[in-house]
Amino acid sequence: MSSTVWRAPGMPLLLTMTALGFSGYAALLAVAPLWAVRGGADAVGAGLVNGVLMLFTVLTQLVVPGALRRFGWAPVLVTGMLLLGLPALAHGASAALGPTLALSAVRGLGFGVLTVTGSALVAELVEPRRRGQAIGAYGLAIAGPQVLFLSAGPLVAERLGFWVVFAVAALPAVAAVPAVRLARMLDRVPPAGNERVPYASLFPPMVLLVGVTLAGGALITFMAQMSSSAVLTALALLLLSVVAALARWRVGSLSDRHGPRRYIAPLVLLTTAGMSVIAWAVRDPQSTVAPALLAGAAVVGISYGGLQNLTLVVTFQAVSRRHYGPASAVWNIGFDAGTGIGAVVVGMVAAGTSFSTALLVAGAISLLTLPLALARAGRPARAGRPPGDAP
What we know:
- This protein has helices spanning 3-7, 11-29, 31-38, 43-71, 73-85, 97-125, 131-150, 153-159, 162-168, 176-183, 199-226, 230-258, 264-281, 290-317, 324-352, 355-367, 370-377.
- The chain is mainly α.
- Helix 8 packs across helix 9 (162-168), helix 12 runs parallel beside helix 14 and helix 14 runs antiparallel to helix 15 (324-352).
């Protein structure tokens, strides 16, 4: 990856804000459901923790573009970082399901701001011909905290205490500092015009994203409960995060060179294959098949990271510059809706059957997006600027 992508004006500030923000998000993603279980919640309740987080994230994403137009970048960015970080400190007051869900809802408001503004700014700060690489850099800023905190969170909570994780989850509040500096650079960003946003073109990549994030959200939420070993849980989540980061980074360059759509259908198939392997690995709750679990996590990681990059590139190709905000909102709604649905659906199915069956259901849902992936793959990729941008 060219170093100039990392040094483009505003990118260092964006990557710093993103890394701090996603540190708080990742630290609690697997730990908050465990905290609720400690307070007496069952699998359905544990699934609701991240389901509520994503519900309020999605609801916020719907209004972020309008909020940016009305209030400006600085108030929206700073408020989002504080809402994501500060409530984490209150988790230690109670492990009961009600307070845990309420705090997840508040944090979802902040996460909705972070996700929409972050991906929109990637498109804004770097020209389209290097957008795949820029999305890859942005993806590493997201994945780095997940490698550090998502995989280690349950283990740290068990060995050192939940309060350590809650403290790490407050890091987004620190991101308010780079957010303010970044906002000062954004006066040049044009407001959305009155012309209609082409939502029909944004729907296919969003559905493809839902398919893979549904699988990823299920694994992140329930890995600690499916695995018979805390160490194995940490290794599987670490592998998932590392492979996803590498895939999201490397596929960016391939997308810039060859177009994104040819890679989408194979990655959809990898999602289903990986979920099937993991379902087999956890069929005995008392004795997880470690090699299969790790192999499945790696396979899902490839599709999880790769499809995030490719679907975001396709999304921005479908709109003009003034619609980057709404396009980012639609993409992020797909990402977080998939994550939340995965947590809730897999929790409900697992409560009535088993985690193994629930993962097979998640893999089957991902497979349902394959016809859409093949249909889109048949169209030529747009290598230049999105429609409507000046040359």
